[in-house]
Amino acid sequence: xxxDKTSVVLFIxxxxxxxxxxxxxxxxxxxxxxxxxxxxxxxxxxxxxxxxEGIRLIKFMVKNGPAISxxxxxxxxxxxxxxxxxxxxYDKGNQKSFVIEGSxxxxxxxxxxxxxxxxxxxxxxxxxxxxxxxxxY
Length: 137
Fold this sequence. Notes:
By secondary structure, the chain is of the alpha+beta class. The protein has 2 domains: about 5-60, no CATH class; about 65-130, no CATH class. The protein is about 15% helix and about 30% strand. The chain has 1 helix and 6 strands; from the N terminus they run ββββββα. It has one helix spanning about 110-135; strands spanning about 5-10, 20-25, 40-45, 55-60, 65-70, 85-90. Strands 2-1-3-4 form a 4-stranded antiparallel β-sheet, with no helix packed on it. A two-stranded antiparallel ribbon has the order 5-6. The longest helix has 23 residues, at about 110-135. The radius of gyration is 28 Å and the shape is elongated. The mean pLDDT is about 85.
């Protein structure tokens, strides 16, 4: 490395072996497929041409494995008896092509949506009745 540019050394978690030693400014393709799913820390150590150092820690979450979606049970729910669960697991697949099948998780319609639909339908019925019958005039 030349001594007239600032350099950065990248580390993952507590690994003493750096994943990259680069001169700035740089665009770096960070490949997370070699990391396990879960929380990690990117440690960036910078060294200026004058010998001064700076450190920055960035926590991030890796989720390369298939995504798991579940409906019918939430974290810390209290349950009893039998109840239905809808579970779906899907992967991003090939990043160069888009596959629709299995990439979306079906979900039930939320209660607030049913209420909104009923309110719009009731307003439409009221408007239709008043418009065509001349009510309340």
